[in-house]
Design a protein that fits this description.
single chain; 215 residues; alpha/beta; Rossmann fold; 8-stranded mixed β-sheet; two-stranded antiparallel ribbon; 9 helices; binds NADP nicotinamide-adenine-dinucleotide phosphate
């Protein structure tokens, strides 16, 4: 698979890019600045032990089978709107968590479309939107300790074939397919869930994740 990580210079994008590249995928990191993308790509390539390229967000997405959106919710709408043409007919994975932070910790922001993933689907109506990787932390992704087998990647989307492709991609991270949890609107549950994990991490000084029992 050729995978573009839009916003790939950030912690989450770098971590996902590392896992995908280490699993043998052809990865292009995107940024608003091609030079910055190239620098981060070199760091990821060294960590993964394989080639990783850098490009502008637009050029990275234009060349990919799967585009991962890994930008802050602030600026998400403008970016997706600007990339809408190039996202058409591609599988687009959103891991965007619209969260705010105050003295009491992390909290869910109000999102008019219900979730960032649904916002992206509205702004790029021909993209094949899938929500995934919301609850996997950047720090765990970047760690060089093998698959995150104590976690599941939860996958939601409205198109069965795209969901299955992304569930399989999750094997790069956890060592087994992601768990498919229903339609794209389930992103309304998945995106704020990270606020709970952040509180657990703080309380117990751990790097927590979600694992589904009973499967
Ligand atoms: N960090 C985590 O552990 C984690 C876990 C799960 C999900 N997530 C989600 O993953 C996404 C990325 O997280 P992150 O921690 O990597 O974020 P980040 O470091 O703050 O941002 C990622 C990249 O997005 C680009 N960016 C920043 N502001 C932008 C704007 N207004 N418009 C367009 N691009 C912009 C920047 O790249 P350039 O300046 O190079 O363009 C930046 O390096 C977020 O939505 C977050 O909720 C994060």
């Amino acid at each position: 698979m050729r995978i573009a990580v839009v916003g790939g210079t950030g912690a989450q994008g770098k971590g996902l890019a590392y896992r995908f590249a280490a699993a043998g995928h052809d990865v292009v990191l995107g940024s608003r600045d091609a030079g910055r993308a190239g620098q981060t790509a070199a760091t990821v390539a060294e960590h993964a032990g394989t080639a990783v390229r850098g490009a502008t967000n637009h050029d990275a997405a234009a060349d990919a089978d799967i585009v991962v959106l890994s930008v802050p919710y602030d600026g998400h709408a403008a970016l997706v709107g600007a990339l809408a043409d190039v996202l058409a007919d591609r599988i687009v994975v959103s891991c965007v968590n619209p969260l705010g932070f105050d003295r009491a910790g992390a909290f869910a922001l109000d999102v008019p479309d219900g979730s960032a993933a649904e916002e992206a689907a509205r702004l790029a109506p021909r993209a094949r939107l899938v929500g995934a990787f919301h609850t996997v932390s950047a720090v765990s992704l970047w760690r060089d300790e093998g698959p995150l087998d104590h976690e599941d990647v939860l996958v939601c989307g409205d198109e069965a074939e795209a969901n299955a492709v992304v569930a399989e991609l999750a094997t790069s991270v956890t060592g087994r397919p992601g768990v498919q949890v229903g339609p794209l609107r389930q992103a309304r549950q998945l995106e704020p869930l990270t606020a709970v994990l952040i509180a657990v991490n703080k309380r117990y000084k751990v790097r927590s994740g979600i694992r589904i029992g009973g499967l």
